[in-house]
Amino acid sequence: MLCAQCGKEHPVSEMELTFRRPDVVAALDRRELEARVQENRNFCVMDGERFFVRVLLPLPVQGHEQSYCIGLWAEVDRPAFDRIYDLWETPDRGDEPPMNARLANEVPFAEGSLGMNADLQMMGGDSRPCVYLRPSQNPLYGEQQSGISTHRAYEYTSYFA
Fold it and tell me: Number of structural domains, the chain?
C-alpha cells in the first residue's frame, strides 16, 4: 500500500524504532556506565536503586492488523522488577496483572513522553512486555488510542536511521 502523504511504500513489518538503553543510562560516560550500571538485553539496574525493563509500546496502524511497536525501556519499582525477572521465561507470564511503569525514553515527536505513566503487561510466549499509556494530553497517548498512519510509523523509524 502506498503512503497517501509521500507516495512511497512503507512496509510496517520492516520498521521499528528501538532504544538501546534508558535515557538516563545512555547519558552516562563509559566509566560511569561500568561503575553504576548492570545490564543485559532485557534488564538494566542503575546504582542498585533504579530498575528498567525492555518493553514494546504498540501503536495500532490504520488499515493494518499488525501494530507498529516502539522498542523502549520502562522504569519499575524493585518489587515489580523482581517479579518480572522471576517470570521472564515462564510460559504463563501473560496471566500476570499489569504493573505500574514509567517510560524511560523520550520518544521523538512526542515531547514530554519521558516519565509518562503506563501499565506494563507481561505477554505470553517469548514476547517482550508491552506498555499501555495512561490517559494524558501527550500526543503519544492519542496515537496509542487512535492509531497512526504508515507514514507516521515510517517517521518514527527514520528518526534514528
Answer: 1
